[in-house]
Amino acid sequence: MPRFRDLRIEMDLMTAALNFVVPPASLVMLTFAWPTLTFINTCEWIYNTFFTSEDMENKVVVITGASSGIGEQISYEYAKRRANLVLIARRENRLRGISENARRLGARHVLIMAADVVKEDDCRRFINETINYFGRVDHLVNTASLGHTFYFEEATDSSVFPILMDINFWGNVYPTYVALPYLRQSSGRIVVNASVENWLPLPRMSLYSAAKSALVNFYETLRFEVKDDVGITVATHGWIGTEMTRGKFMVEEGAEMQWKEEREVHASGGPVEEFAKLIVSGACRGDPYVKYPSWYDIFFLYRVFAPKVLYWTFRFLLINGGERRTSFIGTGRPLLETSPRRLIGGPVTTSQSLQQQLKLE
């Protein structure tokens, strides 16, 4: 027992010393190494762009959530590279128009399939149909996503919680699970549509952030498991001009819930088209990460080494910086308690009645 106590004391002293020394030492090392690392990364980017970038002509790309937003624009970028496309979404009527646009841009062949990515059987069906038609899968691009704009404490109906997890997490895991054996055969790549909210705290996005955090950690772990057999590109974005940032709250790739007033809200931030172009270029180069905009990374240093600075900064800018304006969509709270605003198609008082009014495009 005395020997055990001595050993424990030594370990405690060592841990205390490391806690004191490692953080500042790491910052100093990073400061001196930054120019060299930047130079190496630049050389690697140039080499991969001009000498080893993957030729996507006649390759087969499966894109989920392709009926709008990032998924639609990624489809066009792959089409310009003359790839064969398999477009997946719940809104088949939207996919028809997108498939025609993709063909005009250069896609060799385009298949469209209506499917629900949160159902494993649907995922197995569209992957099997892809294999039966093309015989291979080279890239799997998961873009299906669902956000929200309510404060967590305002949600009185927890039935919306699993919907957010289903779309943002399982809606990526199931297609990956089914397609992974075929991606191994082709030494293919998985492209993931994540978000900076997976590590950067923002108000009114608690459940979305949690789902995205789980998603990124899943793929980071999978990256070690598949090694070099299958590439993984994790794309993280900040505030971009998607349907959600224009005021729409997308459920299962098609059922819209939207304030009439929010239809006119200008979408701030970088364009989704630019982000889609960066994703496809990065995937073809074999980049493990694509970030847009990249300056968000500096906040990660603050989170690790000065979390209180980050917390108080965002609290000042985002929480106390203006009126607490929340869309009560999906919270189960009566809308007329706070505002006379109405949803397109009529008033809604509970999430159950809201779901009854939802209609796929």
From TrEMBL:
It comes from the Eukaryota. Pfam families: adh_short. The chain crosses the membrane at residues 12-34. One of its GO terms (cellular component) is membrane. Its main location: membrane. It is a single-pass type II membrane protein. InterPro entries: NAD(P)-bd_dom_sf, Sc_DH/Rdtase_CS, SDR_fam. Belongs to the short-chain dehydrogenases/reductases (SDR) family. This is 11-beta-hydroxysteroid dehydrogenase-like 5. It comes from Forsythia ovata. The lineage of its organism: Eukaryota, Viridiplantae, Streptophyta, Embryophyta, Tracheophyta.
